[in-house]
Amino acid sequence: MNDEQAGTLVLVATPIGNLADMSMRAVEELSRADLVLCEDTRHSATLFRHYDISTPSTSYGSHNIHGKIPWVLEQLHAGHRVALVCDAGTPGISDPGSVLARAAMDDGFKVEANSRSQRHRACVGALRVAD
What CATH fold (topology level) applies to the domain 8-129? Predict the structure, then answer.
């Protein structure tokens, strides 16, 4: 796979309670992405309106995980930058985000965490070594 054309999956942390807790780095990442996968697009729409984020979004959660992963991998193969958010906090090990991250890594795509926190980066590292 050509690195210049390869897509990237980015795990983006969102506020747990207060919208003002959103990092500017996360806002920039969501604005920069070609597509945002949301646990609940209605919930994420509030965040998007608050920060004037106009990136297209679609749902991705336990209700559509198996049907959505092949489509997301197609988006990555097309070179898109895809961000993943959950309703509150960091997508990672114990939610449907882990299944997508594993599928993306298995297909050779880069998976990043937008946060500088050690915990967030550790989640991505744990996915790399998990079976």
Answer: Cobalt-precorrin-4 Transmethylase; domain 1 (3.40.1010)
pLDDT (mean) for 27-53:
94
Domain boundaries of the chain, sorted by first residue: 8-129
Residues in contact with 89: Cβ distance below 8 Å, sequence separation at least 6, in sequence order: 13, 14, 16
The amino acid occupying position 93 is: I
Six token digits for residue 15 = 């506020």
- pLDDT tens string 42-88: 989 999 999 999 999 999 988 888 899 999 999 999 999 999 998 77
CA distance to 3, 59, 106, per residue, from 30 (Å): 21, 15, 24
SS in 3 state form for 80-105?
A: CEEEEECCCECCCCCCHHHHHHHHHH
Find where tokens 């988006």 sit.
75
1: pLDDT strictly greater than 50:
no
